[in-house]
């Protein structure tokens, strides 16, 4: 556990709220392929999330469709009941509006919905948010994110834009009444963001996207920076895919810095200005993934990791460009 009084460095969001630069990812299961069930397995979350809290994490990243909001609410509630943490110590993120996934991904239909098949998009967002708050056991969340920019199988760009604006209008209402202290999006491309910005709506404070050395998007990250949008990297290790953690370049950089390959990757993210939300079930790695502020990578080491970007990004999840 971190020494008493230690706090993870933070970045300031557009509305003045601060987000810790390292959070703990609360999606458990297998959705990147392989044998057996592909989907979320929330029962795997209990021990790692407990270990993360004990290691000193205060920023937790969950979602309505992960099935771990109840787990997080229970773990944090018990810690608050004993005085281990206070609500003010914590930064809780959840996400809403995940569209139906391909058939091989096992996500309950009660946790996802087709943006174009519901009678009232705004009401569905509000209903799901109330369920999220109930499971988390809080009166407000620190950050609320739109999980995807729309349904995967929609072919009508105009309809997609209308749906995005309808979802975002409800997010703005939740921000205005204090149910969400900050609002943002996930998996939004520059075009998706422009739909909101060009309509004169609240600029998202965060864009959470898949980012790692094998999946880089400098154009999007530069656009977000210019708009005052904090970039948050999910799957910073590519969800264990593509042999990223065994990459010889990253291994050499880690050896030079006397850190693990995971720490080298996360430090690369931080020095690029990204917030990161790594996930692990291993107690040692959970602690390592938070121990990122006692060393730095030099310019050459940063450039070597950045230079690993392939001509086409390697994604462990769906390509946001496929969503109209």
Protein architecture, described:
The chain is an alpha/beta fold. It has a single domain, classed as Alpha-Beta Barrel (TIM Barrel), CATH 3.20.20.100. Helices cover 35% and strands 13% of the residues. The chain has ten helices and twelve strands. The protein has helices spanning 46-55, 69-82, 121-136, 157-176, 190-198, 218-227, 248-257, 261-271, 283-288, 299-306, and strands spanning 10-12, 18-20, 24-25, 29-30, 39-40, 59-61, 91-96, 143-146, 183-186, 206-210, 230-234, 275-276. The strands form three sheets. The chain has an eight-stranded parallel sheet with strand order 3-6-7-8-9-10-11-12. Strands 1-2 form a two-stranded antiparallel sheet. It has a two-stranded antiparallel ribbon with strand order 4-5. β9 (183-186), α5 (190-198) and β10 form a beta-alpha-beta unit. It is globular.
Instruction: Please tally the β strands and state the result.
Output: 12
Shape descriptor reads globular
Unreliable sequence segments: none
Q: Could you tell me the strand content as a percent range?
A: 5-15%
Radius of gyration of CA atoms, rounded to a whole number: 19 Å
| Secondary-structure element pattern, one letter each | EEEEEHEHEHEHEHEHEHHEHH
Count of discrete structural domains: 1
CATH superfamily: NADP-dependent oxidoreductase domain
User: So what's the CATH class?
Assistant: Alpha Beta
Name the structural class.
alpha/beta
Helical coverage, percent range: 25-40%
Distance from N terminus to C terminus (CA atoms, Å) equals 44 Å
Widest beta sheet: strand line-up: 3-6-7-8-9-10-11-12
For the largest beta-sheet, the strand count, sense and barrel status come to:
8 strands, parallel
């Amino acid at each position: 556990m971190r020494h008493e009084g230690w706090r993870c460095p933070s970045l300031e969001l557009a509305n003045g709220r601060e987000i810790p630069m390292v959070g703990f990812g609360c999606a458990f299961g297998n959705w990147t392929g392989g044998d057996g069930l592909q989907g979320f397995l929330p029962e795997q979350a209990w021990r790692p999330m407990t270990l993360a809290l004990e290691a000193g994490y205060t920023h937790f990243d969950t979602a309505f469709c992960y099935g771990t909001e109840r787990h997080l609410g229970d773990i944090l509630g018990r810690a608050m009941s004993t005085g281990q943490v206070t609500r003010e110590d914590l930064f809780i993120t959840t996400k809403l509006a995940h569209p139906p996934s391909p058939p091989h991904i096992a996500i309950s239909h009660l946790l996802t919905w087709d943006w174009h098949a519901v009678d009232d998009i705004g009401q569905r967002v509000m209903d799901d948010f109330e369920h999220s708050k109930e499971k988390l056991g809080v009166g407000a969340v620190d950050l609320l994110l739109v999980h995807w920019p729309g349904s995967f199988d929609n072919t009508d760009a105009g309809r997609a834009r209308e749906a995005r604006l309808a979802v975002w209008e409800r997010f703005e209402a939740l921000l205005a009444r204090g149910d969400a202290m900050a609002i943002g999006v996930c998996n939004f491309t520059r075009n998706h963001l422009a739909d909101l910005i060009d309509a004169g709506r609240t600029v998202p404070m965060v864009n959470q996207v898949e980012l790692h050395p094998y999946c880089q998007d400098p154009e999007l990250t530069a656009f977000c920076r210019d708009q005052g949008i904090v970039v948050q990297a999910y799957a910073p290790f590519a969800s264990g895919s593509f042999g990223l953690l065994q990459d010889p370049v990253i291994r050499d950089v880690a050896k030079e810095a006397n850190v693990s390959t995971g720490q080298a990757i996360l430090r690369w993210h931080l020095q690029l200005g990204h917030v990161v939300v790594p996930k692990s079930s291993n107690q040692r790695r959970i602690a390592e993934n938070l121990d990122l502020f006692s060393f730095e990578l030099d310019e050459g080491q940063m450039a070597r990791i950045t230079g690993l970007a392939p001509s086409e990004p390697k994604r462990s999840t769906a390509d946001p460009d496929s969503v109209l």
